[in-house]
Amino acid sequence: DEGSGYAIGLAALRAVARAADGRATPTRLTEAILSYFGEAAPEQMIHRVYNLGHNTADIAALSTVVEETAEGGDAVADSILREAGRELALAASAVARMAGLSNPVPCALAGGVLLNSARVAAYFQESCAEDGLILHPVERVREPVMGAVRLAMRMRCSVSRPMAMRSLMSGSRPDSSRPIILTARLPPPAPLQDFPGRGGRP
């Protein structure tokens, strides 16, 4: 899952391991991640990461440590975030190409990494531009479905309301070359149901 919080956290652990055995330049990530885990030496993290049952969420949580370390001027941490942005841009470019989208392409930024890491978001848009993918408008949304709704509202038909009304009253059809986007209200959410075996909570 390139560009994800897990990928960022895993890259940070690898950078610390490589720095510890001399295969790479030292990085402030070592001190930052040791502090995060409450350990004194990189060797002690091996047991914690591999034997204490850390799941993907635990590794992904390190992405915030990487972001903070990059903001402190660490080049290794910054390169990890840059690579994450690049991978996300490659994914976006591939989707736009396969879908036959032409510039500018509307984009909704969602997910913990793009919403919480200003550096990854900036590197993502920078890499998209380098690939020739122009993103506009760009929306930041907490819920992906709301991003689709907001982008659709922005891309409303350019036909004015008076023109549309005149067309309807005269019985003529609007110019088919102009896209018409209908905005429908979403129905209210269905009431939550109790599920057995979970304490009556959904």
The outline comes out as: elongated
Radius of gyration: 24 Å
Series of H and E elements: HHHHHHEHHEHH
In which range does the helix fraction lie? Answer: 55-70%
* Beta-strand percent range: 5-15%
Number of E strands: 2
Sequence of strands across the biggest β-sheet = 1-2
* Regions with little confidence, pLDDT below 50 for 5+ residues: 157-190, 192-202
| Number of helices, counting only DSSP H or I runs of 4 residues or more | 10
Structural class comes to mainly alpha
User: Mean of residue pLDDT?
Assistant: 78
Distance between the termini: 29 Å
Largest sheet: 2 strands, parallel
Structure commentary:
This protein has about 200 residues and is mainly α. Helix content is about 55%, strand content about 5%. The protein is built from ten helices and two strands; from the N terminus they run ααααααβααβαα. It has a two-stranded parallel ribbon with strand order 1-2. It starts with a helix and ends in a 32-residue tail after the last helix.
